[in-house]
Design goal:
The chain is α+β, with helices and mostly antiparallel strands and about 300 residues long. The chain has eleven helices and 13 strands. The protein is elongated. The mean pLDDT is about 90.
Length: about 300
């Protein structure tokens, strides 16, 4: 696999944006409502956004200066005047409407009205919430950090969450947000977005839990670590186990009808290893990690 190497200083801001926006994605969308000192409301989406702390609860988003003329966005001007905002989470049902607010409307234009959203009074801050958003975070702005003076430079808005509002329809039986129900969208490069739906959700077990730490790939037998069949994801699953199966467990598994048939069909050591690794991969793809290890240790 060849690598294209690019020095950052050789790129224009537009070229850099193209590479970074496509490479660092998907990015969650901060749909920020703000207000200026005269009470004029602004609503705008930002994909430079994430949660950065739990205690205190801190979200950070970044309005960048426009690359074409180095002008600033109304959101940035507003939080410098009134250091408060509401971060409204964007789901699939509202993404087209939210996209309308990315237009550079003149100051004084209310994007709530332009995009057809409903203003909902906040309880702890001045900017209104977006009623259609299923999660609304009322925040105070602790700090704004400028990252540069040229067009395309970011401005980190460090927002502390003071109150959350969550639509009960997206909660599960335990009162937690259900990833199958919230129907999130995220920003990619260019005009591309993605939707988080049930068919592309998956879980990954933590590498450490109350039972201890996984053995890691460096503890694997050489033929397993250097397998031409097992993928990186397969190796990652194998590395999560806390202990390997015992010799007795491996021996018992080898005597099952299925495994006896597989072993009897092998002719030489190379084909034997390949068949065993293919069998282990099938077991891993179906969630049977310890059985996969028993196969690999035969």
């Amino acid at each position: 696999m060849g690598l294209k190497t690019i020095d950052a200083s050789s790129l224009t801001p537009a070229e850099m944006q193209g590479f970074l926006h496509y490479a660092i994605s998907p990015r969650p969308i901060c749909f920020a409502s703000t207000i200026d000192k005269n009470g004029v409301v602004n609503l705008s989406p930002f994909s430079f956004f994430n949660v950065f702390s739990i205690n205190p609860p801190i979200c950070v988003f970044s309005p960048t200066s426009r690359a074409r003329d180095n002008t600033t966005k109304h959101t940035l001007e507003n939080v410098l005047e009134v250091p408060e905002c509401v971060i409204n989470i964007v789901n699939y049902d509202m993404v087209q409407q939210a996209y309308l607010t990315s237009t550079d409307y003149p100051r004084g234009v209310n994007e709530f009205s332009k995009a057809g959203f409903t203003e909902l009074a906040s309880e702890t801050v001045k900017p209104p919430r977006v009623a259609e958003s299923t999660v609304q975070l009322e925040c105070v702005v602790n700090e704004v950090i400028s990252l540069g003076q040229n067009g395309g430079a970011g401005n980190l808005v460090i927002a502390e969450v003071k109150r959350m509002h969550i639509n009960e329809d997206i909660l599960d039986a335990d009162g937690k947000i259900d990833p199958h129900k919230i129907d999130l969208v995220a920003r990619l490069g260019g005009d591309w977005y993605c939707r988080v739906t049930g068919d592309n959700l998956f879980k990954i077990a933590k590498p450490i839990d109350s039972a201890g730490i996984g053995i890691g790939i460096d503890a694997f037998p050489k033929d397993v670590k250097n397998s031409n069949v097992l993928t990186g994801n397969n190796l990652g699953l194998l590395g999560l186990v806390k202990t390997l199966p015992s010799d007795e467990e491996v021996e018992a598994f080898s005597k099952t009808d299925e495994m006896k048939e597989l072993l009897d069909a092998t002719i030489d050591s190379h084909s034997r290893i390949t068949r065993l690794h293919l069998k282990a991969k099938h077991l891993l793809d179906n969630g049977h990690v310890m059985d996969a290890w028993k196969v690999l240790l035969m």
